[in-house]
Amino acid sequence: REKCSILDIIQGVVEKYRVLSDNKRIQVNIDIPSELPTLYIDPQRITQVIGNLVSNAIKYTPEDGQACVRARVNGDFVYVDVEDTGIGIPDQAIPTLFDKFTRVSGEAEKQEGTGLGLYIVRKLVEAHGGKISVSSQLGKGSTFTFSLPLKVSDEE
């Protein structure tokens, strides 16, 4: 783990998926305060987490939709939200969404996937001492929120 700027990671991920989002005319916005503290994290793993959430947001959002990545400090954590105007997730699918091999039925079935992405995301966030959750409205979109601790030990 090393000290990293979450803003730099988010900007890199959004840029990485620019072709995908441009192809679907999906606008991906970044809303992050400039004074966000640096975090002691594994940059590759957190890039993987944000990448999975951003690519899902693009994948499950119809053309001309929007996605937004936000970050904020609250207490001892930085919270990152990845919000989209996508197809949404049925209420009954949410409790098992982060489990291994979970695939959501309905519209989401048209997309390819292993059902491992969100499971891996949850494991990586938890390995960093954080948590992940989702709120969603069918037909309106979803917001995935994960937290990362500001402090990893008493020495900091």
Description:
The structure is a single chain. It is built from four helices and seven strands, in the order E-H-H-E-E-H-E-E-H-E-E. It has helices spanning 6-16, 18-23, 43-59, 117-127, and strands at residues 2-4, 27-31, 39-41, 66-74, 77-84, 132-137, 141-149. A hairpin with a 3-residue loop joins strand 6 and strand 7. The longest helix is centred in the N-terminal third of the chain and has 17 residues, at 43-59. It is globular.
Main beta sheet strand tally, sense and closure: 5 strands, mixed
Helix-and-strand structural type? alpha+beta
Number of strands: 7
Principal-axes geometry comes out as globular
> Low-confidence stretches at least 5 residues in length (pLDDT < 50)?
none
Distance between the first and last residues' Cα: 14 Å
Q: Name the CATH superfamily assignment.
A: Histidine kinase-like ATPase, C-terminal domain
Helix content: 25-40%
| Separate helix tally | 4
Explain briefly what this protein structure is.
The protein is of the alpha+beta class and 156 residues long. Helix content is 29%, strand content 28%.
Give descriptors for this structure.
globular; 156 residues; alpha+beta; Heat Shock Protein 90; two-stranded antiparallel sheet; five-stranded mixed sheet
Break the fold down into its secondary structure elements and pairings.
Layout: E1 2-4, H1 6-16, H2 18-23, E2 27-31, E3 39-41, H3 43-59, E4 66-74, E5 77-84, H4 117-127, E6 132-137, E7 141-149
